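Chapter review. Work through the record for Probable GTP-binding protein EngB before attempting the end-of-chapter questions.
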Amino acid sequence: MQVTEAILAGTAVSPDRFPKDGLPEFALVGRSNVGKSSLINRLAMRKKLAHTSNTPGRTRTLNFYRINSRFYLVDLPGYGYAQVSKSERLRWGAMVENFLAHRESLAGVIHVIDLRHPPTADDRLMAEWLRAHDLAVLVVATKADKIARSRWESHRRQAEATLQPSRCVVFSAETGAGRDQVWTWVVERLSG
Ligand code: GDP
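C-alpha cells for Probable GTP-binding protein EngB:
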C-alpha cells in the first residue's frame, strides 16, 4: 500500500474522545515494548509518527492514526507491564476490553508478538479473549531481524498453532520484511 497521508488524528482515554467519522479501524494490541510503535512507523513509512521507546509501559492512551483518510490504526496501551499497580491494570483492562468488544467501526485486530520467543502467557490470554469475541485477528510476529531467517518459519508456525489467529505473518520494523503482507490483510478486510 502506498501511504500518502498518515496523521495522529487523536488520542483518547475515554470513548467521548474516539473519532466519530465512522472510518474502519484496526486495533493494535501487544505486550509493552513488543514493537507496536515501530510497526506503525514502518507500515506508514514515517520515522516518528508513533513514539517509540526503550521504557515499557508509557502509553496509557488510545492513539488513532488516520491513514490515507480511509481507515485508522489504533494503538492500544500495551499489556503485561509488571510495574503498574493493580488498579491501573484493571483500568487498562476495562478500557481496552470495552473498545475491542463494543467498537462498531472495528474491522480487525493486529496482535503483535515477538518472533524470537514462544507466545507468553499474556499473549495467549489476549488471543483467547479475541477469539471468544469472534474478532478477525492478524498476528504480526516482529523483530524477525534479531533471529536467523532459517528459524522464521518454525517460530511462525508455533505462534500460529498456539494463538490460532486468522493469519500470522513474520515482520521486522528494522528491515520492512512482512510489511506488504500486513497491508494485504488490511486491504482484504477493507474490501471484504
Ligand atoms: P511498543 O512499546 O510496543 O510501542 O514498542 P516500540 O516500538 O517502542 O519498540 C520497543 C523497542 O524495540 C525499541 O527499542 C525498538 O527500536 C525495538 N524494536 C521494535 N521493533 C523492532 C524490530 O523489528 N527489530 C528490531 N531490531 N528492534 C525493534
